[in-house]
Write a structure and sequence with these properties.
Blueprint: E1 8-14, H1 21-34, E2 39-46, H2 52-61, E3 66-71, H3 77-85, E4 92-95, H4 104-114, E5 121-130, H5 134-150, E6 164-167, H6 168-174, H7 183-194, E7 197-205, H8 217-232, H9 235-242
Parallel strand pairs: 1-2, 1-4, 2-3, 5-7
Antiparallel strand pairs: 4-6, 5-6
Helix pairs in contact: 5-8
Length: 263
């Protein structure tokens, strides 16, 4: 790898996050700098209507390792991530919300755990200690029980736990399609069927300190209905028929390919 190229590209979708960005992105970049990791933060202005894009560009001009990826019209959380993948240059690629719920130092530890593997891993967090209300906890437990029932071999009891980090060769083979909230489960399910090991690290999940969550009751309905339809529909089986298997050796020895944006 060229010394000027990043070791890790992190996609962070930002939709109307003007209040959160000043408190989440600078500490995030600082944690990786202190660890000596060359980070590329692909901050996706996901169709924001506030000053999100302006603030991102200001941080970029201050010298933070930020690439601002603009999506003109918000088509969902997943679409912002899929579109921003095309801007990632590093061999390892991650995705994380802009809510600051996971400490940057824990994200660095997660990367340290996956970077020296053969690349056939999915590094993610399990929000072991969550400062959620009772209703949110009940919904989360029921949701993850449903996931375990439908897909018992995923190797995670917190499917939506982010950040997630994986090798770009794995990401290319997953051929992710979900433009909304189902992106996390789709990634987990496809990684499982591709034979990717899940490395899950327990973390403390803080409450969102700034800005507003974009998760609504309709989000829960979307998760449950998509899980059922994905399990018993044809999308997963169609992908499995055409999915390119992982090579025999370490992924860092595989030839590099460009990642397409969402289609």
């Amino acid at each position: 790898m060229n010394v000027d190229e990043p070791e890790l590209s992190f996609v962070m979708p930002c939709y109307n996050e003007q209040e959160s960005i000043p408190f989440t992105i600078p500490p995030f970049c600082e944690a990786f700098a202190k660890a000596g990791v060359k980070l590329e933060l692909v901050a996706c202005d996901n169709g924001s209507k506030d000053r999100t894009g302006e603030i991102l560009r200001a941080l970029q001009h201050k010298g933070l390792p930020i690439v601002v990826h603009k999506v003109e019209v918000n088509e969902g959380y997943g679409n912002g991530i899929l579109q921003a993948f095309a801007s990632c240059r590093a061999p390892w690629i991650g995705m994380i919300p802009c809510d600051g719920q996971v400490d940057p130092e824990d994200v660095v530890k997660l990367f340290q755990a996956v970077r020296y593997t053969d690349g056939k891993v999915l590094g993610k967090v399990r929000r072991r200690f969550r400062m959620d209300g009772p209703l949110r906890k009940v919904v989360s437990v029921l949701y993850n029980l449903l996931v375990f029932t439908l897909y018992p071999g995923l190797g995670s009891i917190d499917v939506n736990g982010s950040p997630k980090i994986l090798h770009r060769e794995v990401l290319r083979r997953l051929d992710l399609k979900s433009k909304r909230w189902f992106l996390d489960p789709e990634l987990m399910i496809k990684a499982h069927y591709l034979g990717v090991r899940t490395l899950e690290m327990n973390v403390f999940a803080r409450m969102r300190g700034h800005g507003l969550s974009h998760v609504r009751a309709s989000t829960c309905v979307e998760f449950f209905t998509n899980l059922i339809s994905y399990r018993f529909g044809g999308a997963l089986s169609d992908w499995r028929k055409r999915a390119e298997p992982l090579p025999a050796g370490p992924l860092h020895e595989a030839p590099e390919f460009e990642l397409p944006g969402a289609r």
